[in-house]
Amino acid sequence: MKTHGKKYRAAAEKIQAGTLHTPKAALEAVKTAAFAKFDETVEVAVRLGVDPRHADQVVRGTVVLPAGTGKTVRVCVIAVGDKAKEAEAAGADFVGTEFIQKIKDGWTDFDVMIATPDQMGQVGQLGRVLGPRGLMPNPKAGTVTFNVAQAVKETKAGKIEFRVDKAGNVQAAIGKVSFGLEALETNFGAFMEQIVRSKPAASKGVYVKTVAVSSTMGPGVRIDTTPYR
């Protein structure tokens, strides 16, 4: 049976077990309980009342976190001509169709790929490499678009993608422990608003069942879901 270390147990003692918190109180508890020597990521986990086995109950979307993610996002754009120039001007790290061959050769030193629709015929050949890593461009995620400048800027500014897993859970990173409480609260609010807006019409009963926030190494803190019902 797995047991937690002394630091984790000490952090868990600071959390009121079984208590449902407001988002502000929960995030404050996460910051207080964080004990790692590195700047831990603050994560939110939501259990939804959906059955992802049915296509009409899959919850998926994107949201731009107002305070950013705290991470430097490396963006690779597959585009040509004016669209490639737009991507470069918007701050993309890697631009051009020459990266298609590099990826075939095993290069994947980027976090997000954006491609224009006219290049998806070539990008589609990279499915075996990009798919398992979650890097394949997708229209629903806004990463297959002719508006590459906006896509690059939003990604750099803190745009994240979320998708429900087989068990009906959605997890996302909403910042760092070093963020101010207001910044974390703003990001959390934006994320939950998008989760609520993404409710499938086929979903019946309670949609948002449980919500918890935690740091990378720390214990989870439960949040009152009443406002999301």
UniProtKB/TrEMBL annotation:
Gene Ontology terms: cellular component: large ribosomal subunit
Organism, as annotated: Pseudogemmatithrix spongiicola
Protein name (Swiss-Prot/TrEMBL): Large ribosomal subunit protein uL1
PROSITE patterns for the chain: RIBOSOMAL_L1
GO terms, biological process: regulation of translation; translation
Annotated Gene3D superfamilies: 3.30.190.20, 3.40.50.790
Pfam families: Ribosomal_L1
Alphabetical list of HAMAP family matching this protein: Ribosomal_uL1_B
Transferase recorded as keyword: no
Gene Ontology molecular function: rRNA binding; structural constituent of ribosome; tRNA binding
Family label: Belongs to the universal ribosomal protein uL1 family.
UniProt function note: Protein L1 is also a translational repressor protein, it controls the translation of the L11 operon by binding to its mRNA.
Subunit structure: Part of the 50S ribosomal subunit.
Keywords on record: Repressor, Ribonucleoprotein, Ribosomal protein, RNA-binding, rRNA-binding, Translation regulation, tRNA-binding
InterPro entries reported for this sequence: Ribosom_uL1_bac-type, Ribosomal_uL1, Ribosomal_uL1-like, Ribosomal_uL1/biogenesis, Ribosomal_uL1_3-a/b-sand, Ribosomal_uL1_CS
Domain of life: Bacteria
